[in-house]
Design goal:
Length: 303
């Protein structure tokens, strides 16, 4: 059994993942525009896939045809998530993006309840209501207005991300599939779709965009690829074996907090009373909902 100091040391990489994920919305906002979202995604995945393939290459060869097909279908959904998130981050503040996407942690157990025809508990509904009130305050932070397009895109990303998790969890053919190999197939499918669609959108070709990048843009692209994607993936694979799922969920659940802090500190976001109250309600409601939705402890499964 690990000592408390060892447990805290093991938590640091997970906390780092939450920080880089929270900062990814700000990085996207400074790197991509509405016209360059697709080529930026192609470049990001083009940097990640070869390195990720080195880590999971042997396991990829062990996938069956059904697993490849299932992973590709999930990759189409994942591509939709990346599109909504990236376009949303371009059209709203980094603070709003990070907090709105965190609703996924409430929507997932709610979706499971609906599919299982089980009525959600009252504490969970109260937590969900607090988060929705927080989103309303957050989007009205600069005065009474309709939610902007970016806010709605991020909300759509949270919904689609929930669907992705529910489909992946309920697809029997993929339940025993290696998570690393399945992730590579999904990312590769999404990247292929982005590459095929880009020429028909009027966006610049990815390589032309890359040639025009300066040091700052290349730094942001490498940050998104190496830290927000590859590093985060590797840490999650390690964390599954090194610590408990509830601890992983708790630490990664701090992502919206870091998005809010970095968005205000570095992104020029305004810290008004409404924004502060809305952020607090989203964070508190999401964490409370996640806790009451956690499954009851069961016997540990073999690795």
């Amino acid at each position: 059994m690990r000592s408390p100091s060892q447990a805290r040391l093991a938590d640091l990489p997970l906390l780092a993942v939450a920080v880089v994920w929270g900062s990814s919305f700000l990085a996207v906002k400074h790197l991509a525009t509405a016209q360059t979202v697709l080529p930026v995604l192609v470049l990001r995945f083009a940097l990640v896939l070869p390195l990720l393939g080195v880590l999971v290459g042997r396991r990829l060869r062990g996938l069956s045809r059904v697993e490849w097909t299932g992973g590709a279908l999930l990759g189409l959904i994942l591509g939709g998530i990346f599109l909504l998130e990236t376009f949303g981050a371009v059209h709203t503040s980094a603070t709003n993006a990070g907090l709105i996407i965190s609703l996924n942690m409430l929507l997932t157990p709610l979706g499971e309840s609906l599919l299982g025809r089980v009525r959600p508990s009252r504490p969970f509904l109260l937590a969900a209501g607090a988060s929705l009130l927080g989103i309303a305050l957050l989007t009205q932070g600069s005065g009474l207005r309709a939610p902007c397009a970016g806010d709605l895109l991020m909300l759509g990303a949270a919904v689609v991300r929930t669907g992705h998790m529910l489909v992946m969890g309920r697809t029997r053919a993929l339940r025993g599939t290696d998570s690393g190999a399945l992730t590579w197939v999904q990312l590769a499918t999404a990247a292929l779709v982005f590459a095929l669609v880009t020429p028909f959108t009027g966006a610049p070709a990815p390589w032309r965009l890359a040639v025009g990048f300066g040091p700052a843009q290349w730094g942001l692209l490498l940050y998104l690829a190496l830290f927000c994607t590859l590093f985060a993936f590797a840490v999650q694979m390690w964390a599954v074996r090194a610590t408990s799922p509830s601890r992983v969920s708790l630490l990664l659940g701090t992502e919206p907090l870091w998005a809010a802090v970095l968005g205000i500190a570095l992104g020029g976001g305004r810290l008004t009373v409404a924004v502060l109250a809305g952020a607090g309600l989203v964070l508190a409601g999401t964490e409370a909902g996640r806790r009451v939705a956690l499954p009851r402890p069961s016997a540990p499964e073999p690795a």
